[in-house]
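Model it.
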Amino acid sequence: MGDFKFSVSLGKIVDEFKLEPVCVSENYEKIKIVTNEINRPSLQIAGFFDYFYNDRIQIMGRVEFSYLEKLSSQERYVALERLFEKHIPCVIVSHNMEVPEEMIELAQKYTTPVLRTENTTSRFMSALIAFLNVELAPRITMHGVLVEVYGEGILLLGDSGVGKSEAAIELVKRGHRLVADDAVEVKRVSDISLLGSAPDVIRHFIELRGIGIVDVKMIFGIGAVKNVEKIDFVINLELWQDKKQYDRLGLTTEYMDILGIKIPSITVPVKPGRNLAVVIEVAAMNNRQKKMGYNAAEALNNKLMSQMGLEEDE
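Modeled.
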């Protein structure tokens, strides 16, 4: 991924959280936020700037305002200018509190947007961090199909023409949901979670060779599609090779590394006569069982070992 940083516009944050513009400059919506870290500038308005990063959104709540209220107008101006002169992206005031005149004057002087929310500070911070984690997450685009099967996000991979889209449409007919076909945008939203979605332009469309482009939402209804899904399991589809030895027990768990996160995976051979949709359904249910602590392959192996032990004792 290198050092490339993703960004989200301040306008998108304003729209998402219905923020009230208190003092903004022209085109403030285009300001780019490049970090999911946010800051409460209590120490900064008191004059302490060690380890301060000016690319973070600044959120001010009752603690900061209580301190500012105890200052004279001139002291308040000086305290706030320490913060605004660092060229921060914006200040968001919580609890719908009245913004002091000194802050508005400095916002105009340094063209720094001041916004307001009626939410409490802690609640708003939690929601904003979660939003930024998704919007600024490291990401890649993978050639494959993402479906939700029995609550499991299943990423289907394989060469073109192996039958990924056909399997997906059969799964949709069986009551499951399509997330993305052909191109899957994968984001790492935490140290343990990947989210997959479709690019906006091809969302809810699927390509079936011989038929063409199909709008899944229009044909099967809104319940047949989903915009975003966590990736729980990877199924690699490949054409059946007679000389290849395929895993028949599943005692060893394979993983696929995607953006530094290991996702359980299996390889499923494809040949005429195999009902891929049923195989994928069973794989999804089996993966859920494993996450709940039951492994059928291990259970069978334990039974066989116990039976062999009894026979040796006899």
